[in-house]
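Input chain follows. Return structure tokens only.
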Amino acid sequence: MPSGHLARRSSFQRLALYTTTATASLMASAAVHAESTDAPNVSSVAISETGAAHGLDLSVGPVNSDVRLPSSYLNTPLTDAGVVTTAAATRTPDFVVDTPQVVVEGPGEGHTLNPGEPGSIFDDAVDVTGVGQFYRADGFVCTGTLINPRTVLFAAHCVNDAGEDGFGAAVGNIPAAFAFQADALDGLRSWIRSGYSSVPEDYVYNIEQILFDPDSLARPEARGFLESDVALAALDTPASDVPTWAMLFSPLATPDSIDSVSGTGYDVRVVGYGRSGYGESGSFQGTDFRRRAAENVLGALASLNDRNEWLFGPGDYGLPQNLYQTDFDDPNGTNPFDFNLFRDGARDVEGSTAGGDSGGPLILQSSMTELVIGVLSGGSRFFAAQPDSSYGTNSLYQPLYLHWDWIVANNPYRYAQTLAGDGNWSDADHWQLALDPNYMIIDQNGDFANGVPDSPGAGLEGTEPKFGQVCDGNFCLDLATGDIVDYDGNILVPGGSDTDPEFTSNSIGTVIPERLLDLSRSTAERNAAVAAADDIAALPEATFANGLPGGSGFVPDNVAYSPETADSERVNARYFDVSLANAGTTTLDTDVTIDKFMIAGAEAALDITADGMLTSLVDITQMAGMMNVDGTLASNGDYLLFTGALTGNGTVQTPYFTNMMGIVAPGTMGTIGTLTFEGNVILTSGGVYSVDFDGMGQSDLISVAATEFDDEGNALNGVASIGGTVLLNPVEGSILRSGDTYTIFTAEGGYEGTFASPDVSAILRPEFTYGPQSVTISIEAGSYRSVIDTSSPVQSAFAALLDRNRSQYDQYDDLFGPLDLQDTASIRDALESFAPREQSLRGAMGLAAVNVGNRLIRDRLVQLGANNDMGGGVAVIGQPNQVARATSLDSGNVPAAERAYLGQEQTGLAEDYSGYLAGGYVDGEASGMPTATPQGESKFDGFYIGGGLEKAIENGAIGIALTYIDMEGNTVVPTHTADAELYQGSLYGVTTIGGIRLDAQINAGAYATETRRSVAAGSSEFDIVGNDTAFVFSSEAGVGKVLSAGAFDITPRVAFRAARIDFGRVAEQGGGPALSYELPNYDSYQARAGINLAGKGGFRPFVNASYVHDFADRPALFGANFVGGVGPNVGFALPSSDHNWAEVSGGLGYQAGNVGFSVAAESTIWRDEVSYQSYYGSVTFAF
């Protein structure tokens, strides 16, 4: 459709049009869209045409800042200073407004200029998009694009008339500003009323400095706007709430094909605040401060030389720099001035540009993103009668890829990052420039990627690459191939064809002029030469001055613009966006101001010392890492702690501090401190507040202070919304104790919400108290009964002791302190480990010791008979029937079996005395504590010695003896042990009446024990020792008779034995779970029946077996409390009693003259309570 409409015109008509406009197209001036108005000083804000264009029929003109704005638009009288003061202002200064805007097809085509009507191209679907209107206080306007919070990209010709230091209200030069609302009028008014100051709430920002490419003025032919027409405006206030745009620094790729509908295939969007109108009539409506947008197709990447040579023939046009170019296509194909300059079709909202749009973006539309690829410089018309910005006109954009390095070097906004490792903020070697996220290139895969090109921009010398097809109404030249095609895309002459220009015709008989064929050949040759060239310039080394990523040698600290004077050089504005991503700590001990700050790396940290202050004007973002503030951290915006940690004793000044999922820990982690927030605080449910405390009422504190108050002194900020988890951490040497209370949070303006906190342990839990402006936390203790395994008697006993002695916390703080902090499993394990297992062992060892002592005397009595003449002798004995009888005994009165057992008669001491020594080793086992887990068995061993002196009496003998027994024992738990010593004296005797032998013994002594158990409660360990000396008493009476049986004597015997161990009260030492207890008496009432079998020769084997029945029951438990404890005792189980068992022994004796020897062993059988084995030996000397 777009190409077909040209067929309705005759070739003659086309030739006439071109002839009459060829000269005019070369006479362009920068004033083509200029307007001036002597506007009345009224308050109306209605916009209408303000005057006629001053220029002649010029085909090319800047679409820029030559539109003057009537002061009536401001609805505000002005003083000389341009500030709103009174209604009696004496003058109204001219106020700059750029000319036009976006023009669309006329009414009835589905689109309109008017806001609020269907099809309106008023770009207000999103009010603030980052495309804004430029104001000059001397009366001109343009359009620009925000590329970072401080910088607007626009056109140099909007400002290059005023010189390099021509702007900036703060330095006394022309005030200028950018406003970013879809309807910018309110922003303009706010800016003026505020005395040329930024008013962020109206999205208007005062300009601090303007930089423009000086090459825009390099060649007269460019008239200040057709080459290097780029400028940057530095805003004095960060436009933090305004979206920014990414720029493409690579040239677009040459399309594979071009058709008459999609053209090059590059769909673009045009946006601006300039004049507006419709396609047939052009830009008839003056600037009304509204942003409008339309669509188009990128027609060509080519210079005006390329375009003009095809349209008007060879000539020295002097404009070689490439431009991105579009044309304004009539959707109906009927407009007489539209010859479809670039062979493409109209878009649905086809539009072009007009005066006032200068500096606006050419926005590439793709399925992935939108990118700014060019800056609007101006436009062209081609017929004297053709209205400006109407169908058939041409718009011209500066390609950013040609000027990218100038933009990068002069961009006042720098992204900075630290190098890896620790360093000081003021160390220039600690920093390097990071890649601006809005710098984009096309990578080797053809994808958009963040980066900068690998070669410098060519600037006004940039002539490559080229693509698109420029058409003259008959033919089109493909600028990439040199092909000559018709409007349907048929190749009439391939690029570089060797043809005779005078007679050349194509297959349809069309004669192609010689100049067009020459241009086709030269285009193909040029492109071939470019393709063969490989001399691509390399980028210079990255420096801070050229702005390339990796540049170093600077300190991030904002710098204000200062113009050049006779006494000083110009100082360009510099603003910094700082990120800490690499591992290492950056220390700040000075005052620094930047625009934005972020900690991005998990191992990155900023330490602001007490002397340091960091002001981040826009905001503070902590994605990870560590922030320590002992000085001051300030921002006009908010501080978001996403993850990571914030510590310190300083002050954070920000409207809102929000902790999302991070940790706030005043002081440091491990030391107590106060962190002050001036502003408001939000602690979300995902965050953590880590509170250190010292056990003496001191803890970390978050203090939220108000900085704004009403007339009555009520805080307007200093308000908090609290939530998240509070974790309690003791400083070194401290533990959390029940009853502790700490103030952890205050908010001068009040707060809402609640904290959550996990139980400190299975026992301790925090309780929050919420006051009007503070939060305190108290530590409450639960019962041990609630956390133990109630099926365990040991745990139950100790839980009862702990719960009833909680009131005496100070007395047992060494136990409660660490134990209260444990979890359920640890508490159960600890209480189980407290079990006094050694008490069962102590009792068992006592039983064994008494039995061994009784056995020693019992054996001695077997060897003493009535009516014996006793001679002196010494026997070492440890088993029955090992006695060396005195040699003075009357052998005639001694049974033969007994004589065989006693051996050869001896002589020595006084005739009626004898003596003995005995000793041996004992090794035994005993039942463990029944209710302890594990119960297991205890083991003990030791040695014993004994000696006695005996005297013969009528029909028998009496004796006295001393016995010492020493044993050591271990329970199933190696750290629970017992040592025991028995000191015993004995009185015993034997007599024979009518062949029946009667014997008896009485024993008394002391049983000394030391028990030891090493236990732990958390990290605390206790060595608990208990000492006791018990009174021991035992007695035994027996009757027996020796019977001879050949080579052996058989001696049956029965006896009754009574014994008691009278334990005393013990108060253990060692702190913690030390117990005070008294074991009940151990009583034993035994009936014994046994038989001895002994040989009669020189070597005398012997065997003894006894059956024992004990009538007494030992105690089942003993009572205990903590040492100094209150309340009743708790019971701990003791092993059950055995009532029936056997004792067996055997050995071998030998007598040689006055010396006799024997060895033997004995053991208990069928006894579980306590069983033992003893091994002993004896030696006998005759006196």
